[in-house]
Amino acid sequence: MKNSTPFNLDECSLSNDLWPNFINKIGFIKANLAVRQSLDLQRMQGSNATLPVLILETCGTALVNSNSIKTFIGLSYLDSGMVLIFSSKLKAIQLLRDN
Predict the structure, then answer these.
(1) What is the gyration radius of the CA atoms in the chain, in angstroms?
(2) Which of its termini does the chain have fewer beta carbons within 10 Å around, N or C?
């Protein structure tokens, strides 16, 4: 199946280390702000069919179709407050749930 997102999710592995490593690199306050900005983008321009993505290398944000997440990591239920953390350098993703 061809990936329709620019994030090449089919080439990514699942990780539990992206978020803690990101915090160690830029600090908790800045990391938390980056997540907040991703969630703000979801609230302003997203829908029930999108999930915010935090791109670690740039601290940029994007929206990805939630069906892509279901296809590549098998998670069919995505709740509000969830952010996909993406590292193109490490080719890894992690799903984060903000409380």
Answers:
(1) 12
(2) C
Length of the chain: 99
Q: Is 37 left (phi over 0), alpha (psi -120 to 50) or beta?
A: alpha
Q: Which residues contact 6 (CB under 8 A, 6 or more apart)?
A: 62
d(C-alpha 69, C-alpha 4), whole Å: 11
CA-based end-to-end distance of the chain: 34
CB of 73 closer than 8 Å to CB of 93: yes
- pLDDT (tens digit per residue) in 39-68: 999 999 999 889 999 999 999 999 998 887
- Tokens at residue 45, please? 């321009």
